[in-house]
């Protein structure tokens, strides 16, 4: 007879193997076969009844675990000098986890009794379950400085690069952290600011050359004035926050909600679950639950946290860091829907029919516990037939119903016809040193589209509820294209041999018809780019002008209150509308909605510019080692001083200066968006295929300069008497000019 393991042995094994927790896995680990499985099943049932385990579908797991960002209290160093800490917010009923603190060289000294906010990693060592890296001490928030280090006789000084930073900072010899003269460094305030003399700082990271990759995003943050240093009052307020209880909330902890995010996501603000609708009046229908972190329960109107969140407007994302709207204590911990951790939420239950139409919804303020934090790729792999240890147990009862509901919603989307642009998204991958390792285009999986459709549906439900209950809100507005931009798009389409419907009220289906005409042709990228350029920019407004791009009448942002202030306003509106508490939308906020809408629309644009500038600099640094290489691409823009080219390989944009095109003069036609050579008749216009040589790359500015080698597979003429090889290009250019002139004459007659 096989020896049956003790309860403690089973618990230890599950703790050490969190991805192998089914009864079959446990039996295999201990060599339990045949009738002995009955005894194993009995022990697992006893552990479940005692609260040590909970059954999740066909697997067992510790009912609670520590969040990836947690508050710890440091203990006395042990005899080996190792520093351990205990979690202050352990929800489990089992043995409290042991956490080893791993200090970095730049971390301040920690002593027994210190409370810290730390990022945790699960490990399976004999003497500890987690390893922790310090984020900061609780109750402390040293001022951050970015500047150039100037070495002195004893230590040195930091000259801030921020224009607002008027004072230099003294650095003591022991706080230099090995920095060299002229290096860009990140430092923090060391001790209180004295009344006399310069303030003191401690260098925490050397960034090297100011043009080095690690410095790129920090420079953009300072250049665009993005606040990245939380005031002390904000940190103190966040640190006082505690996990919320069940009182006044619907208990959703037994619902198998899952979060699905990018693999590198640090916070999770939305979770979902779906199942077939058992309502006989809705045959073939589905019920979709979307649960969103209840940020409003922690960030109250008029508080220091609220004022800072409004000031920032949104989180800003860079390839190597995030500037969050809320401090880590909230964004990475209490307001993040971590796997296995009870979290407060606002959830919406939505009924959709078999055709994907929403036929009803209701909101609740609840308490949930995510059964799994999944990423897009592993979810897609599972549904495609390759589940892993984590997705396998969830496939039948969680993932398959999610995809069934998505299939219905996708059918409704096809009927609604939102704008269907084909614009691949770039992803810059950095190595440990901050250098660009690769530039890839993100795959658009059904898993991505599933979450998008669920979030859109929840956003519509939020807007409809607040409209029905007459509670003011901030709408996400996207107006239709301006007539002049639409006319320019129509002319581009005609020049490409395509048509865009005219003489009727513009709808997204008309633009989609144009995009589908171009799909698979040489003009596809040109038409997609031109359509995007014709679009108005989305913004926030207390008045509802609809969302043209999504083809929706009522739309508001509800699903990301950790990273968008607009969503927090909508959450407060829902709290007010349902009478859930005194943390809802206030009369003062309602009065200021116009001002808030303008401000957060501006902060959104500020973040977009900073993110774009950072991407340009990273790409320039990446390509700087390939100066002289040839690349293929397309003309993406025309200006008097040259043509802009977007490279196929990386999506990087650069300039071909007019001066590099030859000795002839080039005529710039603003309306047609063309450059034409005065001698050769060479016509350069948006969308043409080109081969270019990289002539210059400037990581500091993010600028790229190209030399054009080929245009539409033909060599470029360089002015003067054309050679035999150049006549082909001239004939093509003359033909293109004749076609453009004919089109222009036709358009002029129509306008008359």
UniProtKB/TrEMBL annotation:
S1 motif domain: residues covered: 628-709
Question: Bias category Basic residues: which stretches?
Answer: 724-752
Catalytic reaction equation(s): Exonucleolytic cleavage in the 3'- to 5'-direction to yield nucleoside 5'-phosphates
Record Gene3D superfamilies: Nucleic acid-binding proteins
Name the predominant localization. cytoplasm
**Keyword set, alphabetical order:** Cytoplasm, Exonuclease, Hydrolase, Nuclease, RNA-binding
EC main class here is hydrolase
Annotated region (Disordered) at 714-752
Extract the InterPro entries matched here: CSD2, NA-bd_OB-fold, RNase_II/R, RNase_II/R_CS, RNase_II/RNase_R, RNase_R, RNR_Ribonuclease, S1_domain
Q: Where in the cell is it found?
A: Cytoplasm
Q: What is its EC number?
A: 3.1.13.1
What this protein is reported to do is described as: 3'-5' exoribonuclease that releases 5'-nucleoside monophosphates and is involved in maturation of structured RNAs.
- Family membership: Belongs to the RNR ribonuclease family. RNase R subfamily.
Which named protein is this?
Ribonuclease R
């Amino acid at each position: 007879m096989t020896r049956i393991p003790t309860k403690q042995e089973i618990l230890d094994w599950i703790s050490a193997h969190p991805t192998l927790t089914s009864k079959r896995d446990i039996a295999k680990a201990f060599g339990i076969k045949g009738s002995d499985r009955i005894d194993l099943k009995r022990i697992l049932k006893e552990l479940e009844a005692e609260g040590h385990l909970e059954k999740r579908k066909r697997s067992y797991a510790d009912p609670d675990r520590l969040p990836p960002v947690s508050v710890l209290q440091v203990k006395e160093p042990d005899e080996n000098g190792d520093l351990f800490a205990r979690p202050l917010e352990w929800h489990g009923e089992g043995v409290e986890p042991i956490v080893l603190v791993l200090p970095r060289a730049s971390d301040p000294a920690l002593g027994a009794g210190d409370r810290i906010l730390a990022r945790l990693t699960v490990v399976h060592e004999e003497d500890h379950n987690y390893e922790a890296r310090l984020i900061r001490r609780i109750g402390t928030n040293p001022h951050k400085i970015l500047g150039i280090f100037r070495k002195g006789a004893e230590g040195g000084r930091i000259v801030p690069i921020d224009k607002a930073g008027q004072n230099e900072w003294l650095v003591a010899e022991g706080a230099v952290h090995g920095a060299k003269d002229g290096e860009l460094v990140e430092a923090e305030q060391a001790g209180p600011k004295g009344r006399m003399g310069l303030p003191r700082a401690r260098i925490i990271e050397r960034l090297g050359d100011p043009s080095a990759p690690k410095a790129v995003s920090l420079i953009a943050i300072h250049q665009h004035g993005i606040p990245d240093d939380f005031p002390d009052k904000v940190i103190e307020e966040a640190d006082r926050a505690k996990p919320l209880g069940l009182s006044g909330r619907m208990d959703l902890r037994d619902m198998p909600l899952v979060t699905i995010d990018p693999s590198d996501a640090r916070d999770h603000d939305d979770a979902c679950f779906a199942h077939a609708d058992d309502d006989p009046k809705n045959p073939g229908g589905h019920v979709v639950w979307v649960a969103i972190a209840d940020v409003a329960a922690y960030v109250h109107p008029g508080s220091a946290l609220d004022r800072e969140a409004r000031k920032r407007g949104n989180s800003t994302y860079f390839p190597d860091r995030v500037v969050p709207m809320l401090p880590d204590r909230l964004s990475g911990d209490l307001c993040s829907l971590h796997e296995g951790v009870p979290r407060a939420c606002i959830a919406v239950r939505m009924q959709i029919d078999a055709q994907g139409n929403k036929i009803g919804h209701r909101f609740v303020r609840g308490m949930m516990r995510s059964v799994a934090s999944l990423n897009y790729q592993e979810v897609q792999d599972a549904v495609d037939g390759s589940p892993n240890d984590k997705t396998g147990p969830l496939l039948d009862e969680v993932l398959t119903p999610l995809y069934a509901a998505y299939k219905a919603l996708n059918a409704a989307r096809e009927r609604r016809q939102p704008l269907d642009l084909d614009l691949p998204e770039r992803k810059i991958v950095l190595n440990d040193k901050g250098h660009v390792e690769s530039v890839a285009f993100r795959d658009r999986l059904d898993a991505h589209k599933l979450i998008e459709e669920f979030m859109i549906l929840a956003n519509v439900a939020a807007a409809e509820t607040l409209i029905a209950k007459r509670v003011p809100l901030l709408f996400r507005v996207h107006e239709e294209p301006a007539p002049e931009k639409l006319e320019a798009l129509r002319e581009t389409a005609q020049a490409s041999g395509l048509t865009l419907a005219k003489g009727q009220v513009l709808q997204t289906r008309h633009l989609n018809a144009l995009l589908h005409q171009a799909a698979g042709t040489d003009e596809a990228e040109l038409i997609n780019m031109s359509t995007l350029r014709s679009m108005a920019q989305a913004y926030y407004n207390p008045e509802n002008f609809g969302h043209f791009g999504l083809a929706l009448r009522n739309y508001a942002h509800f699903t990301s209150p950790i990273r968008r202030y607009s969503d927090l306003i909508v959450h407060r509106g829902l709290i007010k509308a349902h009478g859930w508490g005194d943390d809802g939308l206030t009369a003062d906020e309602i009065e200021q909605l116009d001002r808030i809408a303008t401000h957060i629309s501006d902060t959104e644009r500020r973040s977009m510019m900073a993110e774009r500038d950072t991407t340009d600099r990273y790409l320039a640094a990446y390509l700087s080692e390939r100066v002289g290489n040839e690349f293929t691409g397309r003309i993406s823009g025309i200006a008097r001083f040259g043509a802009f080219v977007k490279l196929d390989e990386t999506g990087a944009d650069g300039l071909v200066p007019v001066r590099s095109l030859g000795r002839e003069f080039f005529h710039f036609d603003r309306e047609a968006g063309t450059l034409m050579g005065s001698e050769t008749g060479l016509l350069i216009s948006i969308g043409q295929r080109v081969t270019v040589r990289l002539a210059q790359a400037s990581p500091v500015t993010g600028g790229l300069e190209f030399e054009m080698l080929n245009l539409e597979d033909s060599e470029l003429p360089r002015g003067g008497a054309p050679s035999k090889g150049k006549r082909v290009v001239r004939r093509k250019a003359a033909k293109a000019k004749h076609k453009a002139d004919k089109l222009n004459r036709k358009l002029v007659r129509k306008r008359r």
